[in-house]
Amino acid sequence: MLQNNSMLAQLKQQIRQTTPRAEGVIKATDKGFGFLETDDGESYFVPPPAMKQVLHGDRVEAVIHENGDKKSVEPEKLIEAGLDRFVARVQKREGRLAVVPDHPSIKNVIKARIKNSLDENSIADGDWVVARLVRHPLKADDRAFFAQIDELVAKSDNPAVPWRVTLARHALEQECPDAGSEWPLHDEGLTREDLTSTPFFTIDGEKTRDMDDALHVAIRAEGGWRLSVAIADPTAYVEEGHAADLEARVRAFTVYLPGQNVTMLPEQLADDLCSLWENQDRPALACTLDINADGSLGEYRFFAANVKSHAKLVYDNVSDWIEGQGDWAPADDIAEQLSALRDLTEARTAWRNEHALVFKDRPDYVFDLDAAGNVLAVRTEERRIANRMIEESMIVANACCADFLANNIGHGIFNVHRAFEPEKAEAAQEFLAGQEIVVDREALTELARYTELKRALESRDDAWLDARLRRFQGFTMMSAQPGPHFGLGLAAYATWTSPIRKYGDMVNHRLIKLVLKGEQAPAEATQQLTEQLTERRRLNRMAERDVKDWLYVRYLTPAAQNQDTFEAEVMAINRGGMRVRLLENGATAFVPAPLMHSDRSKVVIDDKEGRIQIEGEERYKLGDPLRVVLTEAREETRSLVAKPAV
């Protein structure tokens, strides 16, 4: 008997070793079946019965079954669950508790229990919660999916659902940090220059409260300008290691959402004591720098100061005045500076166009909301001259910070962006060669060579080429060591101009102050901190996008009901269709392949090349303009659906 058992086990092992298998990630569809997508690009059909054992996003090992020329897979082993902590809606039916994950590709009703510390009576059908998946059918000893509810996020009728649910999904804080009681100004051993009589000014949005930066501009007798940049100084109130500092370190950034900000620092500091309000004396960290007539940077000097803003200006008012529009006008001493700052900006932009890189102008889309969070309108805000004036001032000030830290300390918090990581540079080179653009590898990996290539590519004004090339490019990372910023075309870039809302800027403030005092700098920032800053910035941007998507669906529901037509551009193409941006309001909509032609077989999508053929002719490609009809607004998935206009 034992011998038979041993032989049986050996036989099973042999069968297992010879049975074809595949590893990949489950992609669910809304029709019950799914696909297993492998890392090498293979795709296997997963029939509906097998899909009941897995969830969208699960990484599994599956057995391959062949039936003639058709292949399917049966998931056998869970490698990594696609769902762990998730936001869901509660379902209560006849005393039975379940949750439905808030995910466009997961519709499973999962049985659930409530965490012991929660009151079950406080959670009702339809409420929003945070849950964890605690059982999975492919795990040993688990026979079904099961979840635990850990947190109530919002009641079903709470008007703040879009904000609360989004912040919970990304595990971001719901409220501003506790203000504490008192915030005395600390004696840091710095000599502060008294600049309170110097007519600094701020330019911000009309409703901005956390004003980080104030400027003063003077025309130099020898030509060019002297720009003084005064930056709010929260580290004068918040010592390293203080509870507020530790909390800011965790949050890393202020989260800016339509209609709501969740500050990094307590509001008493962010919006009051540190903010550079008009006619209020404030401690500041400052930099005076010389800009030559050709826009190049001359000498600069960092120092501590006390400043007072003499004017709180608004972007649109300043732009209107410079462009000769509207009735608003600044005081004479401010007017002279604004004219000088305009000239400085044009010179600096021209210099960066020739020696570095300048981002293409894209409009911002601003939501006007009522008290209940309903969207009244979506306004388009172009990057006008006043916006560019502040942007150029901050870029040159941050370039000075990078140079100062690199030369005096050798480390800090730097924004490092390499256009192409080494592993993608070769693929990008091959892609360009396929477009008859022959470049050396160094043109993709060396800053000076890359800026030349980038300017040459932009002169082509080829939206498809730009979009395709972006697929090979990397993202900006936070680094303790100086490194190039290919996006700006600068050898190094370190921000210090937004310490109220960026923890990395607080770190750089403290380092600059140590140099000013002649004290020894601490060890460089840990990899854990730089990775935390990078990840938090990513999550904040995703949260902003998700709230906007929710609000867009609510705002554009009447337009979908009316089948309104919009001008759009193709921003992404995948196997199922294309994603477009509506130019009027910035919303994104998906155009599925079946809505491009009544016969789906006549639609051929090349998602790798970013092109779509219909009836054998190329009809759409990345970057193309087109007109679309909005057909659906689905709040349950926060998605808009459109079709090409006839």
From TrEMBL:
Key words of the record: Cytoplasm, Exonuclease, Hydrolase, Nuclease, RNA-binding
Pfam family, one: RNB
Positions of transmembrane segments: none
Stated family: Belongs to the RNR ribonuclease family. RNase II subfamily.
The protein's Enzyme Commission number: 3.1.13.1
UniProt cross-references to SUPFAM superfamilies, sorted A to Z: Nucleic acid-binding proteins
Reactions catalysed: Exonucleolytic cleavage in the 3'- to 5'-direction to yield nucleoside 5'-phosphates
Subcellular location: Cytoplasm
Gene Ontology MF term list: exoribonuclease II activity
KW Cytoplasm (keyword) present: yes
Family matches, as Gene3D superfamilies: 2.40.50.640, Nucleic acid-binding proteins (2.40.50.140)
Superkingdom classification of source: Bacteria
InterPro entries: CSD, NA-bd_OB-fold, RNase_B_OB_dom, RNase_II, RNase_II/R, RNase_II/R_CS, RNase_II/RNase_R, RNR_Ribonuclease
The protein's name: Exoribonuclease II
Domain S1 motif: 563-646
